Backbone:
């Protein structure tokens, strides 16, 4: 999946005595900036690095885009994280993970099926 957007995205790395988080954002048109990938080193999760990276992205692109969106699986922890970062649920793409991957994708022992999109205004 990363090969589908990496060449048209911008990558950001949050460093704090070493790499803690990274993300890739893309211009989806119509004023929408999308977080395509965000990851925090597992030992540093829950320490605010992902939230700070999202805040940086929002501040950097405010005025250039009107919406910041992200798609994720229907997993309570992920949805809660994005909602904590100011996102609200927008729409869902049915069967996204089962249609686009040749193997089941799991997060927190939950098989991901639908893609849930969340948005926040910039």
Residues:
């Amino acid at each position: 999946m990363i090969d589908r957007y990496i060449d048209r995205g911008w990558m950001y790395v949050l460093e704090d005595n070493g790499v803690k988080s990274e993300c890739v954002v893309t211009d989806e048109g119509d004023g929408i900036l999308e977080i395509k990938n965000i990851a925090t080193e597992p030992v540093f999760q829950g320490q605010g690095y992902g939230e700070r990276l999202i805040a940086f992205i929002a501040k950097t692109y405010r005025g250039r885009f009107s919406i910041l969106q992200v798609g994720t699986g229907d997993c309570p922890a992920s949805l809660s994280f994005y909602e904590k970062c100011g996102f609200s649920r927008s729409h869902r793409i049915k069967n996204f993970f089962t249609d686009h991957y040749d193997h089941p994708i799991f997060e927190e022992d939950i098989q991901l099926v639908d893609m849930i999109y969340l948005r926040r205004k910039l």
User: Anything to note?
Assistant: Strands lie at 9-15, 19-27, 32-40, 67-73, 88-93, 106-107, 110-111, 115-121. The chain has a mean pLDDT of 94. The chain has one domain: 2-90.
